[in-house]
Structure prediction request, 90 residues.
Amino acid sequence: MTVYQTIEAKLTEAFAPVSLVVIDESEHHHGHGGWREGGETHFRVKLVSAAFAGRSRVDRHRMVNQVLDAELKGRVHALAIEARAPDEAR
Prediction:
């Protein structure tokens, strides 16, 4: 399973999102810190889930980081998070 697939599966299982987009932005960071040949080092996740209702932005980021702890300690160098509750979705 790729890092992309692992991120997608873990976030789906943890948050049952209404919407989930995982973007591998590694090529935008070619030659910068943390970049590795083959990519899968820099990601952006956009997710909408009822699990985020009533939670602060910091709490939402902590929740996502906790679910992806192994990936963040491993191959993933950077993770941009956009987490919203369904009533906040754009």
The longest strand covers residues 42-48.
